[in-house]
Each structure stands twice: as structure tokens, then as C-alpha cells.
């Protein structure tokens, strides 16, 4: 019998109840680059609704131009993708970054921060890619795993099998369905054939397990009302699906609906990104002591149709790698 391991994350409540740090004091002075970069990172993660959170790695350049009523700060930032999915309530400072062998994803972003008294306006455009391309990795390490598109038929079949195993063996009352594929890698394994390693997110639906409704017809709950499970697993051509490991993320909004309040919510998951912490003047991975408390998003309510398999903004990114979750430009073109 396959093993199902579930880890429930309850620490989010303590984070939500703790006092939020003040917004970085972004000014038009020459030494405000670190605060502006942290504000930009917060906005990028806040708007990034698929895949994984990003961490600031390096400030490559910055310029400040005086304009009427304030200034315009131009930044070039290098970010690295973390191991935390965007629905993970863990503070960004506690999210690990993958090693080179795990196929690191980076983003080079050009950001404009406009500062007017206490108000900020942010726009950005990012180039998201693998730190080492597939061709370069093949030359450096021919036996290392390669990243596959999220829509790869073989891995999608294994993932759907894993979702069925979860619904069959878990103690959850409601049915869960696949929300999105996080990442997929593949490589040849001696005595096991091709190996596939995948991460995916499931969302709670309105169907009870004892319901006769076919699972594909079940409606996911609104993202802030639903439990989520982020799972990792693997499979080989000779041995089939392996162990399933899942983390449980509780819903952010547990308030009952008001009298006559109608179900209404959008496709995008709520941001679980806390307010940006005060700048420490450092770049690179922040220390665990700089944890950022989380905040509640705007409450939403119950049901929503299944989210589209591809973020609409990705359609405009013609060169987007189908194995990645790229950062979409803001505002959208």
C-alpha cells in the first residue's frame, strides 16, 4: 500500500495575529534603494498568483530621478524562485531556494517605483528563466533531471492518479481536485526506468466524499475559503506511483456569510504575502529573524468555477517556458 503523509501547518495563526511591521520608508534619497527593492519584491509576490514565491537575490542597478511632487526610482533586480507555493502562508524569509541540481529558476526584473509623499506606484517587467538552461545542463550533467512542461501527458496521468489516491486514503470530508501543477522534472534511473518528480496543488471542493457526483464536476471553493494541499511525489516506469507527501494549508477566511450574501469570488488565489519588512540594507537571502507577519486578504465567499489551466497573462508572454510559472508584467499590457 502506498504511503500518504500529511503535514498540517498551524503556525499561520500566530503569524496572522502578530503585529505587522511598518511599510519601508521609501524616500527620494540616494540610500533608499534597499527599501524600494523590498517594496518592489512585496508587490511582485502579491501579484504573482501561480507557482512559487520569489526572493530578492541582488540589486543590479538603481537610479533616482526627481519629478514634480516626488521622484521616480528605476531598479534592476535579480530574484530567485523559492520552494514555497504562492498559497503557502510561510513568510518569504523562511522559504528555501532550490540548489543548482534542483534546477533553480531566476527572474531579472526592471522595476519603476514612483514616490509621492506617502504614496507609491509600482510597475515592473520580468524575464523568468532557468538559471542554467536545459542545453547547458545537458552538457554539464547529462544524467541530471530536466524540467518538463506542466502539461506533459505522462506526468499529468501520474498526478491525476495521485489525486485519486489522496481522495481515497485521506481523512478529509470533502473531495479535492487538481488546481495546478507546480513543477515537473524527469531523469533516467538505473533499474527503475524513467523517473518523474512532480509538485502540485489541490483545492477543496463542495463535494462530500460520499457524494455520487463525478469528481471533475465538483466546484472548488473560493480560494480564501478552501483548504489547500501542496503535494510532492514521484513515479517510475517500472514501479509506478511512489510515496505521496502533502502539506495542508488552512483557509484564510472562516467568517460565516452575512444574511443574503451571495457567493462571489474570482479565479486568482488570495495573496498570502505579508507587508514588506523594513529594509536592513542587505540583499541576498534574509535571515529567519526578519520574518514578515501575514495579513488577511479581502474576504470572499464560497464557490468558483475551476480555474483555467494557464494564467491569462501568460498568453501575452510568447517566449514563456512551459515548464515554469513566469512572473507576469504589471500592469498587464
If you had to describe this structure to a student in words, what would you say it looks like?
The chain has 333 residues and is an alpha+beta fold. It has one domain: Nuclear Transport Factor 2, Chain: A (Roll), CATH 3.10.450. Helix content is 14%, strand content 34%. Strands 1, 6, 7, 8, 9, 10 and 11 form a 7-stranded mixed beta sheet that branches. The protein is flat and about 65 Å long. The protein starts with a strand and ends in an 84-residue tail after the last strand. About 14% of the residues have low confidence.
Topology summary:
Layout: E1 4-8, H1 12-17, H2 33-47, E2 52-67, E3 70-85, E4 105-116, E5 119-130, H3 134-140, E6 146-147, H4 153-169, E7 174-189, E8 193-208, E9 228-236, E10 240-241, E11 244-249
Parallel strand pairs: 1-11
Antiparallel strand pairs: 2-3, 3-4, 4-5, 6-7, 7-8, 8-9, 9-10, 9-11
Protein name: Alpha-2-HS-glycoprotein
Signal peptide: 1-19
Region (Disordered): 252-309
Features:
333 residues; Nuclear Transport Factor 2, Chain: A; 7-stranded mixed sheet; 4-stranded antiparallel sheet; 11 strands; Cystatin_sf; signal
The largest sheet, given as strand count, sense and whether it forms a barrel, is: 7 strands, mixed
Rg computed from alpha carbons, rounded to a whole number of angstroms: 21 Å
Q: What is the CA–CA distance across the termini?
A: 50 Å
In the CATH hierarchy, the third-tier topology is known as: Nuclear Transport Factor 2, Chain: A
- The tally of helices reads 4
Total domains, how many?
1
Low-pLDDT regions: 8-22, 277-309
**Mass-distribution shape:** flat
CATH class descriptor name: Alpha Beta
Q: Structural class of the helix and strand makeup?
A: alpha+beta
Write down the secondary-structure element order. Answer: EHHEEEEHEHEEEEE
Tell me the total number of β-strands.
Answer: 11
What proportion of the residues is helical, as a percent range?
Answer: 10-25%
Strand content: 25-35%
Query: Which architecture per CATH?
Result: Roll
What integer is the average pLDDT?
79
Amino acid at each position: 500500500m502506498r504511503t500518504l503523509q500529511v503535514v498540517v501547518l498551524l503556525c499561520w495563526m500566530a503569524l496572522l495575529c502578530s503585529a505587522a511591521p511598518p511599510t519601508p520608508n521609501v524616500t527620494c534619497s540616494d540610500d533608499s534603494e534597499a527599501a524600494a527593492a523590498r517594496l518592489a519584491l512585496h508587490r511582485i509576490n502579491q501579484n504573482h498568483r501561480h507557482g512559487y514565491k520569489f526572493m530578492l537575490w541582488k540589486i543590479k542597478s538603481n537610479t533616482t530621478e526627481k519629478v514634480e511632487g516626488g521622484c521616480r526610482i528605476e531598479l534592476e533586480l535579480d530574484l530567485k524562485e523559492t520552494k514555497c507555493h504562492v498559497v503557502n502562508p510561510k513568510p518569504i524569509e523562511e522559504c528555501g531556494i532550490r540548489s543548482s541540481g534542483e534546477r533553480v529558476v531566476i527572474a531579472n526584473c526592471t522595476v519603476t517605483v514612483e514616490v509621492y509623499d506617502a504614496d507609491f506606484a509600482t510597475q515592473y517587467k520580468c524575464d523568468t528563466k532557468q538559471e542554467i538552461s536545459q542545453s547547458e545542463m545537458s552538457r554539464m550533467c547529462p544524467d541530471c533531471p530536466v524540467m518538463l512542461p506542466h502539461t506533459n501527458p505522462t506526468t499529468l496521468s501520474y498526478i491525476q492518479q495521485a489525486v485519486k489516491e489522496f481522495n481515497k486514503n485521506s481523512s478529509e470530508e470533502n473531495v479535492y481536485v487538481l488546481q495546478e501543477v507546480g513543477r515537473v522534472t524527469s531523469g533516467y534511473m538505473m533499474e527503475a526506468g524513467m523517473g518523474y518528480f512532480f509538485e502540485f496543488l489541490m483545492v477543496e471542493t463542495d463535494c462530500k466524499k460520499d457524494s455520487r457526483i463525478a469528481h471533475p464536476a465538483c466546484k472548488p471553493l473560493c480560494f480564501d475559503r478552501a483548504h489547500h494541499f501542496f503535494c510532492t511525489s514521484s513515479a517510475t516506469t517500472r514501479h509506478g506511483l511512489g510515496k505521496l507527501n502533502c502539506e495542508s494549508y488552512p483557509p484564510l477566511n472562516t467568517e460565516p456569510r452575512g444574511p443574503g450574501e451571495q457567493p462571489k469570488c474570482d479565479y486568482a488565489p488570495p495573496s498570502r504575502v505579508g507587508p514588506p519588512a523594513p529594509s536592513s540594507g542587505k540583499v541576498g537571502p534574509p535571515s529567519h529573524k526578519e520574518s514578515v507577519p501575514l495579513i488577511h486578504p479581502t474576504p470572499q465567499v464560497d464557490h468558483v468555477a475551476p480555474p483555467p489551466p494557464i494564467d491569462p497573462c501568460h498568453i501575452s508572454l510568447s517566449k514563456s517556458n512551459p515548464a515554469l510559472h513566469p512572473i507576469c508584467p504589471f500592469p498587464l499590457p
